[in-house]
Write a structure and sequence with these properties.
311 residues, mainly beta, Immunoglobulin-like, 4 helices, 19 strands, 13% helix, 39% strand, binds copper (II) ion
Length: 311
């Protein structure tokens, strides 16, 4: 009995030591993003578009931290810009006025937050009118990896896809409010990863049969819902908001609303292609299709490092 009590005591001490060690492992990650108003191509032909961006690209840089980390964030609004900008991280729990408020060109904004929930989260400019800033391209993704690396099966490759509408004139607020988009795109390019619908497309996603491909999907909107589906495939697991505790299995599609995100695992038993779409076909057939090729000789760099967001 005494030794049993002693064992319980040592288990308790061990648990405390482990908890302290994992808390100590949490780190502070410094993230500085520059709001930049630039011209960017929105299709494979190189049609230029007046984009408002984080760091000159759409989607903005992928921010990646681990659950429990503190993000020390600064937004710099470049002096050359004409508009106020802001930053709204969906992974943060803060004050919408004080922290997510807009700053003028030449000014900056600083705040910190701790990423308490693992998953994939949207970030975007929240300056007024938000619909205009999102339509111009001011969005990206933050991945908060779970603190326990065994919380999800290990992914062999990872990709980020962000859906959004592209409006002919994002400064015509009335057309945004009336939902008059011309294209829906993944990663701000019409048929960017679809050589089937656009012979100018030179990029697509790649993996080997049997590999677990993890797609971090964000719907930036600003207006359209997504019915996210892999044509000729089945999602092995889907995690709404990317939280490992939300795992659901064997899905054909999951609806992801504007401002929402989810993590999708895809494993193909065969060689060949899947076409990842929003099954809302007016959206898909205007540009929101991404081909993933499963071949035994898939490029080993794809779905790793910089090639998680294929630019
Ligand atoms: Cu903005």
């Amino acid at each position: 009995m005494i030794s049993h009590k002693r064992n319980l005591l040592s288990v308790g001490v061990l648990a405390m030591i482990l908890a302290a060690a994992s808390a100590a492992a949490a780190k502070t990650v410094t993230v500085t993003l520059h709001a930049k108003e630039v011209d960017l191509p929105i299709d494979n032909k190189g049609t230029m578009y007046r984009a408002w961006t984080f760091d000159g690209k759409v989607p903005g840089p992928l921010v990646r931290v681990t659950e429990g980390d503190t993000i020390d964030f600064t937004l710099v609004n470049d002096p050359a810009n004409k508009n106020s900008h802001a930053m709204d991280f969906h992974a943060a729990q803060l004050d919408v006025v004080k922290d997510f408020g807009a700053v003028k060109p030449g000014e900056s904004k600083h705040y910190t937050f701790t990423a308490h929930y693992p998953g994939v989260f949207y970030y975007h400019c929240g300056a007024d009118p938000m619909i205009q800033h999102i339509a111009h391209g001011m969005f990206g993704a933050i991945i908060v990896d779970p603190r326990d690396p065994r919380a999800m099966p290990k992914a062999d490759r990872e990709y980020v896809l962000i859906q959004s509408e592209i409006y002919p004139n994002p400064d015509d607020i009335e057309s945004l409010m009336a939902d008059k988009w011309k294209n829906v795109a993944f990663n701000f390019g019409v048929f960017k990863y679809d050589p089937v619908h656009d012979s100018n497309a030179t990029r697509w996603l790649q993996a080997k049969p049997g590999e677990r491909v993890r797609i971090y999907f964000v719907n930036a909107g600003p207006n359209e819902f997504s019915s996210f589906h892999p044509i000729a495939g089945i999602w092995d697991r889907v995690y709404p908001s990317g939280n490992p505790r939300n795992a659901i299995y064997g899905l054909q599609s999951l609806t992801v609303g504007p401002g929402d995100a989810a993590t999708f695992d895809l494993v193909s038993p065969v060689e060949g292609a899947n076409a990842i779409v929003t099954h809302s076909l007016r959206s898909a057939l205007s540009g929101a299709i991404a081909v993933i090729m499963f071949t035994k000789d898939a490029d080993p760099s794809m779905g790793h490092g910089e090639q998680i967001v294929v630019r």
